[in-house]
Amino acid sequence: MKKIKNEAALLKKAIIVGEKYAMNRGYKGFAATNSAKQKIESLYRLLVNDKLIQPLALDKEDQPNMKHKLALWIARQLPKGHELLQ
Fold first, then answer.
1. Can you give the pLDDT at residue 31?
2. What φ, ψ does residue 43 adopt, rounded to 5°?
3. CATH architecture, domain defined by 7-78
4. Are 67 and 47 in contact (CB under 8 A)?
5. Alpha-carbon span 36 to 67, nearest angstrom
6. E strand intervals along 1-64
């Protein structure tokens, strides 16, 4: 897995956008007590279920790889020239 530039900031943006996407799909939103790990896994599984991202191999399904997939997903959604893509 090749680390991408601004991956942490992209992940943060992916969680925000992903949560809005989930709410538009009927999910009630995350509780304040949900950890970042729970949010990442939930969003990853939702995006895989909706076929917006390709699933990881079963032996590669772990937090670092899920974070990386979410960062790649949001990087593709952002317009060219966005500050996080610099």
1. 87
2. -65, -40
3. Up-down Bundle (1.20)
4. no
5. 10
6. none
Distance set, CA 42 to CA 9, 39, 48, 84 (Å): 19, 5, 10, 23
Exposure pattern of 51-73 as b/e (b: 16+ CB <10 Å)? eebeeeeeeeeeeeebbbbbbbb
Q: Which residues contact 40 (CB under 8 A, 6 or more apart)?
A: 11, 15, 63, 66, 67, 70
Tens digit of each residue's pLDDT (9 = 90 or more) over 45-61: 999 999 999 999 999 99
With 80 as the cut, is the pLDDT of residue 1 above it? no
Task: Give the pTM.
Answer: 0.90
Segment 23-45, tens digit of pLDDT: 999 988 888 899 999 999 999 99
Listed by start position, the domains of the chain span 7-78
Q: What are phi and psi of 25, to 5 degrees?
A: -85, 0
Q: CA 28 to CA 72: how far, in whole Å?
A: 25
